Structure formats: C-alpha cells, structure tokens
Amino acid sequence: MAHPSQLGFQDAASPIMEELLHLHDHAMMVVFLISIFVLYIITLMITTSLTHTSTMDAQAVETIWTILPAIILILIALPSLRILYLMDEINDPHLTIKTIGHQWYWSYEYTDYEGLMFDAYMVQTQELPEGTPRLLETDHHMVVPTDSPTRMLISAEDVLHSWAVPALGIKTDAIPGRLNQTTFTTSHPGLFYGQCSEICGSNHSFMPIVIESSTLNSFETWSNLMLEP
Amino acid sequence: MQNFSAASVNFSQTRKQKGEYTTAPFDPRFPNTNQTRNCYQNYLDYHRCTKALAAKGKDTKLCDWYRRVFTSLCPVSWVKRWDEQREQGTFAGKI
Ligand SMILES: [Cu+2]
Questions:
Q1: Interface mutation vs chain A, best among B40, B67, B73, most A CBs within 10 Å
Q2: Scanning every residue of chain A, which has its alpha carbon at the shortest distance from the alpha carbon of B70?
Q3: Tens digit of pLDDT for each residue in B18-58?
Q4: Same domain (yes/no): A114, A28
Q5: Residue B30 to residues A57, A110, A206, Cα–Cα distance (Å)
Q6: Residue A21 belongs to a domain with what CATH number?
Q7: Which of A44, A68, A88 is where one domain is finished?
Q8: Which of A59, A107, A109, B65 can bridge A98 by disulfide, Cβ–Cβ 3.0-4.6 Å?
Q9: Does residue A102 form part of some domain?
Q10: DSSP labels for B10-73?
Q11: Which of A88, A96, A157 sits opposite B24 (nearest CB)?
Q12: Which positions 97-136 of A are in contact with B (Cβ < 8 Å)?
C-alpha cells in the first residue's frame, strides 16, 4: 500500500502492474537521457563566444534530429501498445465479481456463489482497530483467491464513480446503466487498498476499496462463512 | 507460474464438486470493456428460450446455461427491475 514518504508507484501485486512499472522505468530512462543531453547542449551554447556557426545548410544535423526523435517515440509507443492490448485480454476467468458504486459505498456481488452480496463501508476513524490504515479500511473486504484470473464487472447505481486499485493497475469507471469489464490476477496474498477515483459527491473521499487476496482454501472458507446467515 | 497452474486446477475441482457455479466464459460477440449488452442479451435469450420450450411442452432445463451466464454478469438490481417490468408487461425487449 501507499506510505508517507512514497515517491514512485506502489509495489506491483499483479502481472499487469509489473509490466506497467517496467514501462514507466523505461520511459523515465528515455526522459532522463533527453533531458541531460538538452541541458548539455544549452550549457555549451551559453558558454561559447561563437554564434551562428553552421546554422545554414546543415543537412546532416537536420536529418538526424528529424529521424532520431521518431525512433525514440516508436521505442516508447510499441511497449505501451503491447501493455494496452495485454490489459484487454480476458483469460478465461475463474470467477466473476460485480461491484456497484453507490453514494457513498461500494457493494459487491458474487453471484457465482449463490446470493453472496455485501456492502463495504469505510470504517470511521473513532472505530478503527489499531494498525489499520485510516480512511482506507472497510468493514468488509473483497476477498479473492490468489493467482486466479478474476473478472470484475463495474457499474454504478446513482452517479459516476471509479473503481481503482493502484497495486493491481486497475482503474475502471463505474457508470449508471453500463457494465464495464476488467480483469486482474493477484500474484501474491495480501491487502490491496484503493479509493473511488471519480468525484461523486460530498463523501467521495470516504468510500475506499479493500481487496484481500488469500489462498483458495481461505477464500472458500470465507465464502461459506459469508453465506451462513 | 508453477503456483498459478496448481491454484487453477484446485479451483476448478472445488467448483466441480459444488456443480452449478462455473462463471460465464469469454464471449467473442462481446470482446469490449462494455459488457452491458452481454448481460442483456443473455437475459433476453433465457426468457425467449424458456418461452419457446414451454410452448412446445419441452423441458426448460436446456435454457439453464443462459440463466447461469446472465446471473454471473448482470447486477442483481438490474435483474430485479427487468423481472418486475416483465410481470407488469412494461419490459422493453421482445421475448
Ligand atoms: Cu464514488
């Protein structure tokens, strides 16, 4: 999860997020190389007493600074497109979970598990158990089995919301009357936190998302417990 | 990767024991993020199927696949609303 002195992304909890982190590092390397090169040229130009040397008919340099940026852009665009299509892939999901945004909580439906449904409200600060993150903890976690491809279907009941979990690299708009699909696979057990990411009213900041990834056995136990009245 | 395949085998086994609850597979008619139509079409297909089979006096068990898919995909509130509309005869789709 996020922590106070954090500068970059959260640690990846899914293969897609892993890919996104690599793309980010790759793009940052290109950015740094270009920035340093430009800074170097600027320093050269302001520290020399020569001006206007070879500014006319410099065909070689014209060719290079046209083609080189094109190649650099392609080197960023291709890996980016690769991940874009990777994220669209639906690998035969093991289970489908629906989440519906409400003002101001998320409700979850596991209709593959009979009538397993619940609302997840934020835990108020005064009721927060020790060691749990403030404004991020919910009274019910969305439990998923680790390593299982999961189909998420996201919608809303009243206004626009957005269901986002940074550690999994997911952000999908929740739109009333429309059903949006996304998939994820958690690569290790743990708690992954997220927040509503579309301004949806006065309590927009107080409808967090908690995903609890655990072993298949614990998941089965949990689903059975939830189904008991 | 080893871990991954082990988990998936386990999962399908547990599901098979319980029988009914396999989730809807990927449908090439609806490859996009927007799955609204996928849910609606399967809801329609289920009720068309049961109507057609009931008219012929056949067992409507054959339609269970559509029911399973639309219960997997459709939000419960949507199904409830459509069921109410069908009862009142105000449902917009052709069944
Ligand atoms: Cu919201």
A1: B73
A2: A111
A3: 444 478 888 889 999 999 999 999 999 999 999 888 888 88
A4: no
A5: 56, 21, 34
A6: 1.10.287.90
A7: A88
A8: A109
A9: yes
A10: HHHHHHHHH-S-PPP---TT--SSB-HHHHHHHHHHHHHHHHHHHHTT--GGGGHHHHHHHHHH
A11: A96
A12: 98, 100, 109, 111-114, 117
Q: CB of B60 within 8 Å of any CB in chain A?
A: no
In a domain, A8, yes or no: no
Q: How many helices (H) and strands (E) does chain A have?
A: 3, 10
Q: What is the domain count for chain A?
A: 2
A9 within some domain: no
A118 shares its domain with A79: no
| Residue A22: domain span | 15-88
Distance CA A11, CA B79 (A): 38
B76 Cβ contact partners less than 8 Å away, ≥ 6 residues apart: A109, A111, A117
Task: Quote the pTM value.
Answer: 0.83
Q: Do A77 and A153 fall into the same domain?
A: no
What mean pLDDT value characterizes chain A? Answer: 92
Nearest to B3 among A113, A114, A147 (CB): A147
Q: What is the pLDDT of residues A147-160, one digit of tens each?
A: 999 999 999 999 99
In a domain, A166, yes or no: yes
**Using the beta-carbon criterion (under 8 Å), do B75 and A182 form an inter-chain contact?**
no
Among A57, A88, A119, give the residue marking a domain's end. Answer: A88
Q: Are residues A70 and A101 in the same domain?
A: no
Cα of A161 from ligand 1 centre, angstroms: 4
Q: Answer whether B24 touches A (CB < 8 Å).
A: yes
Alpha carbon distance, N-terminus to C-terminus of chain B: 46
Distance from CA of B51 to the nearest CA of A (A): 24
